[in-house]
Amino acid sequence: MLYEVTANGSQYVLVGNPPVTLLTATVSFSPKTLNVDSSGAWVTCRIGLPDGYRVDDIDVGKVCITAVNGDDNIAPTYLDSGSLAASGKTLMAKFSRQRVEDLVTGMLPQGPSGRVDMVLTVSGTGKITSTNEIFRFSGADAIAVKADAKNYPK
User: Fold this and answer.
1) Which of 82 and 128 is assigned the larger pLDDT?
2) H-helix or E-strand spanning residue 100
């Protein structure tokens, strides 16, 4: 709780939220083509922040896929625990392939089998400990989803 004491000893509670800096992150997913008939375990996401911000300051418990093709009416898909590696200015995070497949196949249009391009948006928050600056980031990358007719929603 923050408060201010005036010269005469009166106290006033200060309310409000600290400012939050909004950042655009660079995001890259792999594989670039998600074949729902494949048996891989992970979808890897590399996240980079603008100059002046470090991926070590990201709250990894808050990193998630928040939108598909701009539609943010989805249940966020969070990272799997123990799936992180930071290297310089890049955070490599892994999402469960099955959970990502469930997310994107639920958004596939009706129609014939084939390849559908989709844009996945990743968002998260962080805090620079030396300045207590809170930041939010968001970034998007396109992938292709390849599914046959049996994988499309009914």
Assistant:
1) 128
2) helix 97-105
User: What are the structure tokens assigned to 5, written together?
Assistant: 């004491």
d(C-alpha 5, C-alpha 131), whole Å: 24
The span from the CA of 63 to the CA of 76, in Å, is: 9
User: Could you confirm whether domain 21-151 is CATH 3.50.50.60?
Assistant: no
pTM of the model: 0.80
d(CA 132, CA 150): 50
Question: Tokens 């009166």 identify what position?
Answer: 10
Following DSSP, what letter does each residue of 40-97 receive, concatenated?
--EEEEEEE--TT--GGGB-GGG-EEEEETTB--S--EEPPTT-EEEETTEEEEEEEH
